[in-house]
Amino acid sequence: MYWKILSLILASTFLFSTALHKQFPYNSGRVFTEQKDATCDSSDTAIVQNCFSIYFKFFNLSISPFPTFETYQDVMEKYLLAKGAVGQAAVCGQKNALSLCLSSLENECVNFQGLTMIFGLDPENAYHYNMDYYISQYECGAGYNTTINNFFCIESCSTYEFKAEEQCSEALVSGGHNASDCSPYNTYIQCMSKVFGDYCGTAVGNWMCNAQSYGILKDVPMCKQSFTPCNSS
User: Fold this and answer.
1) What pTM, to 2 d.p., does this model score?
2) Where does the secretion signal sit in this chain (predicted)?
3) Which residues have CB under 8 Å from 189's CB, separation 6+?
4) Is residue 72 within 8 Å of residue 19, measured between CB atoms?
5) For 201, left (φ over 0), alpha (ψ -120 to 50), or beta?
6) Per residue in 56-70, pLDDT tens?
């Protein structure tokens, strides 16, 4: 089911997976890139906090304290379990509203450093929230029709192809995913795309490729030329 945590713990590695949204693995020992994120000024804090506060109210959550990513996904999972594809459409509406609320501050503050500064998140939670935000932009934007039309197949794939998805994540971690080598990221994306494409069809495989690429490139933009191009879903 969408946003469901499959919670794979491999040594010091947290691998969060979701049904419609497969969360990219986080390695507590990974090397974060020294990227020049757009500057998020302290004067922007109140605006960003207000936007996320409005968003979280939809799920009866608060930014005081800011929920862990696991808590957030648990609430999301329960909501979508009850609402199905209609609920997914509503969630996309809320995510798109959040993006509009943030406006130009999206580029400045919705990044690893900005989320850490504004909400006091630890590296793991900042990483997941950042990746979640941008993968959702594809799922609720260019990939919206595929997201909604294939909701139940994608949900089913996450349940019945769990082992295959786990192998994709394990291969990434064993490949030493960090900023110095783009190939493990690309291998992971193509692996996940194949799992979902084989189960739900080509359109969903392309959807997975695009969603993961969009989110991952926000973390390692220098890898863009190294990634296998995704077809439109």
Assistant:
1) 0.82
2) 1-19
3) 208, 209, 212, 213, 216, 227, 228, 230
4) no
5) left
6) 999 999 999 999 999
